[in-house]
TrEMBL record:
Family matches, as Pfam families: PTS-HPr (PF00381)
Species name: Paenibacillus campinasensis
Keywords: Sugar transport, Transport
Keyword Chaperone: no
Name of the protein in its database record: HPr family phosphocarrier protein
Lineage: Bacteria, Bacillati, Bacillota, Bacilli, Bacillales
Span of domain HPr: 11-71
Length: 81
């Protein structure tokens, strides 16, 4: 795993941890709690596309913040409404 990927994992997890909403990343048939750095390390690869599921009181803010982080790191993610 590259250093660039490590930075993405840490930033995604730190950003997600600022919100109380449930934030889950779906990668094929795996579901990962985005607040779990370990889960992200074992899943995040830049050539894959992901689905982001966000539910909770601050979901809109969480979606916006996480989309910015994924975009910054060139990761393909689609928010599932």
């Amino acid at each position: 795993m590259s250093n660039k990927n490590n930075e993405a994992v840490v930033e995604i997890s730190q950003t997600a941890s600022q919100f109380s909403s449930s934030i889950v990343l779906q990668a094929e048939n795996k579901y990962i709690d985005v607040k779990s750095i370990l889960g992200l390390f074992t899943t995040l690869v830049s050539n894959q596309s992901y689905e982001l599921h966000v539910h909770g009181p601050d979901a809109e803010e969480a979606k916006k913040a996480l989309l910015e982080v994924f975009d910054k790191h060139g990761l393909n993610v689609k928010v599932i409404e």
